[in-house]
């Protein structure tokens, strides 16, 4: 498979890289690196991304998006820092999910402000007792006096504390998994920020809904199968998160390469020692393999092929390759590699965050195993 970039792809990649370096990174740098960004800054980041069409990347033009292929979207995400990618993905993914489920009237109501990032939306599926198995959801809605009443708790929700709208996965009175949009201006619910070890400028939140009243027309009725819509976006999100890991690993590699060329021990640059060269070669090999796996998973999705196995493989391989790349880069740097000043320890904490959402390594292994054997390990 040839992944030589076309002229248009090269332009998209360059524009996104410039936006990240010249506009978005300075916004992040203007705030403390160990605390979640203020809502205004999160919104500003999203609004810049909206100008490149990235907030509605997967929507067709008639729906207000650029109709990017999965590969083009991935190529652009690879240029963003993981923090920016993890601000974008929950918003963009939820917009895509909404597009696939909501009615024309609901689209009119919500889409314009979401695509322009005047308002932020997130998806709340995970609960304290329900993580990898999305069918274990306990949150419930019932109809009462012409309204919906939601009870339940959601955990680890990206952008949860800055979202204006929350796409909540819950059970209806018949026990069917449905989605309902909770609008903060209409409905009261509790939000708590959860401090995390990495990607600390992002928001990860716990949301509590106690007899939360929601207008009836916020129910997403377009599809009864909420789990299927979740899966649709997971498939592309996995290699896209893999590409976030690739961009992190690339930075670790470049730091190691530069250090190896300048740091001198035993009277010469450490890059002249064969063991250091092997460490650099190992990192570069894993980055190249990760990148190609992610691109090929996204290309398979674009060709309409079944991509469950390759998409799972791409994320699992890329994230663990990135962990190894950062560890090796730290090793090349000696004590300096462990210092907070250099930033590799921050990267080691950030990459741990990529490992869990949209499929843990164990879940991804079982998805791949199911493709290989046709045996479903999730159903005993
Ligand atoms: C950065 C980040 C962003 C997130 N964003 C969102 C979001 O926006 N919205 C949202 O709803 N959720 C979000 N999540 C939550 C995430 O989707 C869940 O954490 C994830 O699904 C795993 O669930 P869990 O943490 O409850 O772990 P569990 O599912 O309880 O798993 C615990 C451990 O058991 C393993 N395990 C589980 N089942 C099996 C099995 N069958 N075989 C072998 N091992 C197994 C897992 O791999 C894991 O190691 C986010 C999480 C993170 C870290």
Automatic annotation (TrEMBL):
GO terms for MF: acyl-CoA dehydrogenase activity; flavin adenine dinucleotide binding
Domain Acyl-CoA dehydrogenase/oxidase N-terminal, first and last residues per copy: 6-118
Location of the Acyl-CoA dehydrogenase/oxidase C-terminal domain: 236-371
SUPFAM superfamilies associated with the record: Acyl-CoA dehydrogenase C-terminal domain-like, Acyl-CoA dehydrogenase NM domain-like
Lineage: superkingdom: Bacteria
A family per Pfam: Acyl-CoA_dh_M
Span of domain Acyl-CoA oxidase/dehydrogenase middle: 122-212
The protein's name: Acyl-CoA dehydrogenase
Cofactor: FAD
Keywords for the protein's UniProt record, in alphabetical order: FAD, Flavoprotein
Family: Belongs to the acyl-CoA dehydrogenase family.
């Amino acid at each position: 498979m040839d992944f030589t970039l076309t002229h248009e792809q090269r332009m998209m990649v360059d524009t996104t890289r410039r936006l990240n370096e010249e506009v978005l990174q300075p916004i992040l740098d203007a705030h403390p690196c160990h605390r979640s960004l203020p809502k205004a800054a999160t919104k500003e980041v999203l609004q810049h991304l909206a100008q490149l069409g990235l907030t509605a990347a997967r929507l067709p033009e008639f729906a207000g998006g650029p109709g990017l292929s999965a590969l083009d979207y991935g190529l652009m995400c690879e240029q963003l820092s993981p923090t920016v990618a993890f601000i974008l993905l929950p918003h963009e993914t939820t917009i895509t999910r909404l597009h696939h489920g909501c009615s024309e009237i609901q689209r009119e109501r919500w889409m314009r402000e979401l695509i322009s990032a005047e308002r932020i939306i997130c998806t709340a599926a995970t609960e304290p007792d329900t993580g990898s198995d999305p069918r274990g959801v306990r949150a419930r809605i019932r109809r009462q006096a012409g309204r919906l009443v939601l009870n339940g708790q959601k955990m680890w929700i990206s952008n949860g504390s800055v979202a204006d709208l929350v796409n909540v996965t819950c059970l209806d009175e018949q026990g069917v998994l449905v989605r309902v949009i909770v609008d903060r201006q209409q409905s009261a619910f509790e939000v708590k920020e959860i401090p995390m070890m990495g990607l600390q400028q992002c928001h990860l939140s716990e949301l509590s809904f106690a007899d939360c009243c929601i207008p009836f027309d916020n129910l997403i009725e377009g599809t009864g199968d909420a789990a299927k819509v979740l899966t649709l976006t997971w498939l592309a999100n996995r290699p896209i998160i893999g590409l976030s890991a690739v961009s992190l690993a690339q930075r670790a590699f470049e730091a190691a390469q530069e250090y190896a060329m300048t740091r001198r021990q035993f009277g010469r640059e450490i890059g002249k020692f064969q063991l250091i060269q092997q460490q650099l070669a190992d990192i570069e090999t894993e980055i190249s393999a990760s990148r190609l796996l992610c691109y090929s998973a996204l290309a398979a999705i674009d060709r309409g092929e079944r991509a469950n196995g390759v998409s799972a493989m791409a994320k699992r391989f890329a994230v663990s390759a990135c962990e190894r790349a950062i560890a090796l880069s730290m090793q090349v740097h000696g004590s300096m590699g462990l210092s907070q000043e250099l930033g590799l320890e921050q990267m080691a904490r950030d990459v741990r965050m990529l490992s869990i959402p949209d499929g843990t390594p164990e879940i991804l292994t079982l998805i791949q195993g199911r493709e290989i054997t046709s045996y479903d390990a999730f159903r005993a």
